[in-house]
Amino acid sequence: MSLLVRERRPEDVPLLAQALAEQQAATQYPVRWPLPIPVEDFLVRPGEERAWVAEVEGRVVGHVAVHTLGDGLRGPFLDALGTDELAELAVLFVAGDVVGTGVGGRLHDTAVEWIRASGRRPVLDVVPVHARAVAVYRHRGWQVVGEVQPVWLAEDFPTLVLMALSARPPAARP
User: How confident is the model at residue 71 (pLDDT cuts 50, 70, 90)?
Assistant: First the structure.
């Protein structure tokens, strides 16, 4: 499998919108579907600092972005972690046919490395109906640091789980 992770380009957005739509029924990501906004606006959001796509054999199959924390989550993360030197890993997904192949992990690691290189701590939020996502994040060292009920999440959904990685990667074991 030939995997390439590169910065997202404008011409990738329609391909990503299609991949997001195709995987949604299986993953329930995003939790609100159809979205109340254009899919393209979900993918490319205000506050985005950087975004990458994954290509397998030349086909765009995944996405991740790094965002500046918005007002809605900044306070809860600041309260939980005692710092605002944070950046959010967001909009991470892969096409259904590449789940479990390492594509998502490569996108994840690219974003985390970029956040850490900028001197900030990686954070993210996840709706706990995405049990597989929560398990994957925990396996990769993310820790739950809080919960919040944002206005965009329906009241009958569980609270949003706030997660963080350590400020620096763990030391390599000999």
Answer: confident
